[in-house]
UniProtKB/TrEMBL annotation:
Swiss-Prot/TrEMBL catalytic activity: ATP + protein L-histidine = ADP + protein N-phospho-L-histidine
Catalytic activity, EC: 2.7.13.3
Name by which UniProt lists this protein: histidine kinase
Every Histidine kinase domain range: 257-458
PANTHER family assigned to the protein according to its UniProt record, in alphabetical order: SENSOR HISTIDINE KINASE TRCS, SENSOR HISTIDINE KINASE YKOH
An example Gene Ontology molecular-function term: phosphorelay sensor kinase activity
Keyword presence, Disulfide bond: no
Entry's transmembrane regions: 12-32, 175-194
Species for this entry: Jiella pacifica
Tagged with keyword Transmembrane helix: yes
Keywords: Kinase, Membrane, Phosphoprotein, Transferase, Transmembrane, Transmembrane helix, Two-component regulatory system
Length: 466
């Protein structure tokens, strides 16, 4: 099964990647803009330089053209930019070329190669190599009409690249931690926003966990606080719960009607058999009818427990309630040969429960004793100070591996279908759940013991409770 992902973790990853890509993209664009702007500055500076230096060209009396190159000032640069200028000084290289393309004068380094272009008295900018094959270099050439020569000035393009790289290296060194902190803040902010936004969805999930078959009739998901994106899902879940509830009601009604319809013919059949003379077939048929009657009665009990029947949960004196049930149900069991002992009925323990459900549980347990333990066995009913009711017998006990809780329906302790339907313990557990208590099998050396833990009522004076 595919492992579910966490939205906040996925969003943190997405925000981190997108933020990193944004920062990288912004840095790339800024670098390109800086480089382009720096080239524009270099081109303007080179154009101004060639115009200024063109005034330093002169013709000697012998007709030769001489270039009085000025000494370039050496400026001390700040540390991050020191050593950016490539090549040896001077920074600018030049050539003086006549109309035939002959180089009349040149610098020792960075002298531009190639023939000059048209005779244009305005500076012309282009890119090319140097006479010694290095480059590329930015070239600005200017035709001096009075001398009939071109002054071509060059500067390495690598100076601009080095300046750009150093600028961004210095910026990254100074601003990198700030960018990283900004990225962390963005991720934390995004995750916080998502977690706060999903708070309503978590409340809906908590509501869903509280929905059980017992409260299916009135418990639904309230999605008003959930995001709009999950409102259709909430509506679909509520619709599904309505459909389940409708099906459960139909099933319950069918069970009740079928049980009621079967009661009368079974009673008539039993009367007919009782009028016959006793023989093995007649006795076996009577046992089958009793088993069927018991099954029908248990189906009715389950239908009422699973249905919308409202039980009045109230503060009860547990000992008095148990004593009243035993007074009504015990004589039949005692007269048949079993003995019943009761302890702790006088303990003033008040619990939250319903007398009808408590009577239903005890009657089912006593019926199990009658069916599954030999005549002469003893049943002990005891109450503890903490509101626990224990019903134990001295019979053979349940088979090894029988569940201690979550009793499934139609699961019997043996293969004898006449001994029971496998519904009694499930009915007891359901009834205890309706009273907000628990029903479980206690470990014993011999026999079987069932423990019922009720919700304690600390204020016995309070009457009806919902």
């Amino acid at each position: 099964m595919r492992r579910a992902y966490r939205l906040d973790v996925r969003l943190a990853v997405v925000v981190t990647v997108m933020s990193a890509l944004t920062l990288i993209g912004a840095g790339t664009i800024l670098s390109m803009e800086f480089t382009r702007g720096q080239f524009a500055i270099e081109e303007r500076g080179l154009s101004s330089q060639v115009e200024e230096w063109a005034e330093l060209l002169r013709r000697e009396p012998d007709g030769t053209v001489v270039f009085d190159r000025p000494a370039e000032p050496s400026v001390e640069l700040d540390p991050p930019y020191t050593g950016l200028l490539s090549g040896t000084r001077p920074v600018y290289g030049y050539t003086v070329t006549d109309r035939a393309g002959t180089v009349l004068d040149r610098s020792d380094t960075n002298a531009p190669a190639g023939r000059p272009g048209p005779a244009d008295p305005e500076p012309v900018l282009l890119s090319g190599l140097t006479l010694d094959g290095t480059g590329p270099v930015l070239i600005a050439e200017l035709f001096v009409p009075e001398l009939g020569v071109w002054l071509r000035l060059a500067r390495p393009r690598s100076d601009v690249t080095a300046l750009t790289n150093t600028f961004f290296a210095q910026s990254l060194e100074e601003l990198g931690w700030a960018a990283l902190a900004m990225l962390v803040v963005m991720v934390i902010t995004a995750v916080t926003i998502v977690r706060v936004s999903l708070r309503g969805l978590r409340r809906v999930a908590a509501q869903a966990e509280r929905i059980t078959f017992d409260n299916l009739g009135h418990q639904r998901l309230a999605g008003a606080s959930a995001p709009a994106e999950v409102q259709p899902l909430i509506a679909a879940v509520n619709h599904a719960l309505d459909s389940i509830r409708t099906g459960a009601v139909v099933q319950r009604d069918f069970s009740i009607h079928a049980a009621h319809e079967l009661r009368t013919p079974l009673a008539d059949l039993k009367l007919r058999l009782e009028s016959l003379a006793s023989d093995p077939d007649r006795d076996a048929a009577m046992q089958d009818i009793d088993a069927m009657a018991r099954l029908i009665e248990q189906l009715l009990q389950i239908a009422r427990l699973d249905g919308s029947t409202v039980f009045s949960l109230q503060s009860l004196h547990l000992g008095e309630t148990v004593a009243q049930v035993l007074q009504e149900a015990a004589p039949r069991l005692v007269s048949a040969g079993w003995s019943i002992e009761a302890d702790g009925l006088d303990i003033p323990v008040h619990i939250i429960g319903d007398p009808t459900l408590i009577a239903l549980i005890l009657r089912n347990l006593l019926e199990n004793v009658r069916k599954h333990t030999p005549v002469g066995s003893t049943v002990n009913v005891s109450i503890s100070d903490d509101g626990t009711l224990l019903v134990a017998d001295s019979g053979p006990g349940l088979p090894r591996g029988f569940p201690r809780s979550n009793f499934a329906r139609f699961v019997r302790g043996n293969d004898d279908t006449r001994s029971g339907s496998g519904l009694g313990l499930s009915i007891c557990e359901t009834a205890m759940r309706r009273m907000r208590g628990t029903f479980s099998l206690d470990p014993t050396v011999s026999g079987a013991a069932f423990r019922m833990a009720f919700s304690s009522d600390q204020r016995p004076e309070i009457g009806q409770m919902s």
